[in-house]
Every structure is written in C-alpha cells, then in structure tokens.
Design brief:
Strand order of the largest sheet: 1-7-4-5-6-3-2
Distance between the termini: 76 Å
CATH topology of the largest domain: Elongation Factor Tu (Ef-tu), domain 3
Strand content: 15-25%
Shape: globular
Structural class: alpha+beta
Length: about 190
C-alpha cells in the first residue's frame, strides 16, 4: 500500500476513548453568586474536567455515580479557568441523602447520548411559529435545557405551566434567566 494512502486511512481512523474518573468531593453551596445563589453543587477541577472531555471549556453532559446513586444526562457548568460544577438539584440531593459539607464519592464520564426533545413541548412550539422561530435561534444547549426543564416537571399541571412560560418568553424574545426573573417578580405582585 502506498504511504499516502496509508496516511489517509490513519487520519480517517478516529479513536473514541471515554475515560471514567473517580474522586472524592465535598458538597458545596453558593452564598451570593448571581443566578446561582443558593445552588448546591460539586466542584470539578480543571484537571478532572480535562480528563473527562479534554480541551472543552463549555458545558457538557456526564453520567456516572454519586456514592451508589447512578445518574445520567447531567450538565457540568463552566465556572472559568477550566473549572466546572455539577449542580445538585433537590431531587438529586434527596436521592443521595447529602447536603452542604458532606463528603461524596464521584464517578463520572462523558455522556455522549443525544437528549430527545420533549414531545409535548415541540408540539406546542410548532403551533406557535414565532415562538418556534425564536427557539431555533437559541444554542442547542439552551434548547435542550428548556426541554429537560419541562420534562422534569413532576405533575402535568407543572409541565403545562412551564410550556406556557416558555412560549410566552419566546414571544418576548427572552432567554431562560429573563423568563424566570419575570415570573418570580409576578409571584410577589
């Protein structure tokens, strides 16, 4: 085989190596941190993040275990200088039985599976062309965030309320944080 052809074959060969990392962490909680005030989380150092997804400085999804509790499709959020956080929502904290200051064993790896958008949300979006058009201008990560937020609702009432909030926000060309701030202020009026 000619050397040029061999080099082209080698260059086309892609190694898809996924590394599972394991470390101990402490559950932390933000005091004053803008939108993240009050969030509970685990810090992922730059060195740990580089082992999971080398060179990536934007958010991405991981799967693994927190102590013995398995999780998947959870986004690591960038905090700057290569450091990330793994937010621990109330459902996750309850499942692992941990709170601020508790030690936890973390095993995680890159989760490369695609998240399917919420069928109910997409049906409603397609009935509102302006909202759908704005939704399509959002980065894919934001689209997935909205979809997951809607699907994570515990009741149909909450799911419906979240869909209405999102469609209303899209008609005003608002992002998630603007939508949440506006709806939070309406609670106190």
């Amino acid at each position: 085989m000619p050397i040029g052809q061999l080099i082209r074959q080698i260059c086309r060969f892609e190694i898809n190596f996924i590394l599972m990392i394991k470390f101990n962490a402490v559950v932390e909680k933000f005091d004053k941190q803008g939108e993240k005030t009050g969030w509970t989380y685990i810090t992922i150092s730059a060195a740990q993040a580089a082992r999971i997804n080398p060179g990536v400085k934007v958010g991405y999804r991981v799967k693994g275990k927190l102590d013995q509790f398995s999780f998947e499709k959870i986004a690591l959020l960038p905090m700057g200088e290569g450091t990330f956080i793994l937010p621990l929502n109330a459902k996750l904290r309850k499942a692992i039985g941990k709170r601020q200051g508790d030690a936890i064993t973390v095993e995680m790896e890159l989760d490369q599976r695609q998240i399917e958008p919420s069928a109910d949300f997409m049906r409603c979006l397609k009935e509102d062309p302006l909202a759908f058009k704005f939704f399509k201008t959002l980065p894919g990560s934001h689209q997935r965030y909205y979809s997951k937020w809607i699907d994570d609702a515990k009741t149909m009432h909450t799911k419906t309320k979240r869909i209405v909030m999102a469609l209303t926000a899209f008609s005003k060309k608002q992002g998630f944080s603007e939508m949440m701030r506006e709806n939070k202020s309406k609670k106190f009026e």
